[in-house]
């Protein structure tokens, strides 16, 4: 018999190119939301607010460890998805300036301008996010 990691399992493996999505499943506050996902499907609305009695970004501002895990997860998710998009999508050809609104730490924008170096990239996010974002050439 030969055993290996399934495609779904690979999303939770941390490697140098992608990072792991496991951070989305490792915080108690997020798990409490996922456990009530059925309620969202049946009732709609904002499940995070129903579970924690406040919006997600307010919760994250009060819980820096949760915010850090979320930011890491979003960065890792961007690496996985944008890499695949850039393999097939050519719509950035001819673009001169690209603004990523809510661009976080600039991972997505950096991947795009790395493939299309003629694009001037502007990462637009909340001041406390941009202050922590690395500079990319």
Automatic annotation (TrEMBL):
Example GO molecular function: O-methyltransferase activity
Keyword Transcription included in the entry's annotation: no
Residue ranges occupied by any O-methyltransferase C-terminal domain in the UniProt entry: 34-136
Domain of life from the UniProt record: Eukaryota
One Gene Ontology biological process: methylation
UniProt xrefs under PROSITE patterns: SAM_OMT_II (PS51683)
InterPro entries in alphabetical order: COMT-like, COMT_C, SAM-dependent_MTases_sf
One Pfam family it belongs to: Methyltransf_2
Signal peptide limits: none
Keywords: Methyltransferase, S-adenosyl-L-methionine, Transferase
Cross-referenced PANTHER family: O-METHYLTRANSFERASE
Protein name per Swiss-Prot or TrEMBL: O-methyltransferase C-terminal domain-containing protein
Organism: Gossypium gossypioides
Lineage: Eukaryota, Viridiplantae, Streptophyta, Embryophyta, Tracheophyta
């Amino acid at each position: 018999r030969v055993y290996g990691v399934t495609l779904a399992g690979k999303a939770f493996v941390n490697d140098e190119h992608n990072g792991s999505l496991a951070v989305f499943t490792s915080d108690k506050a997020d798990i409490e939301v996922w456990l009530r996902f059925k309620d969202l499907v049946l009732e709609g609305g904002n499940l995070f607010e129903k579970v924690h009695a406040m919006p997600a970004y307010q919760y994250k501002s009060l819980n820096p460890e949760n915010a850090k895990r979320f930011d890491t997860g979003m960065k890792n998710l961007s690496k996985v998805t944008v890499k695949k998009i850039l393999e097939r999508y050519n719509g950035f050809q001819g673009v001169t300036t690209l603004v990523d609104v809510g661009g976080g730490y600039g991972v997505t924008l950096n991947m795009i301008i790395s493939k299309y170096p003629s694009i001037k990239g502007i990462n637009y996010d909340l001041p406390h996010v941009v202050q922590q974002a690395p500079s990319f050439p």
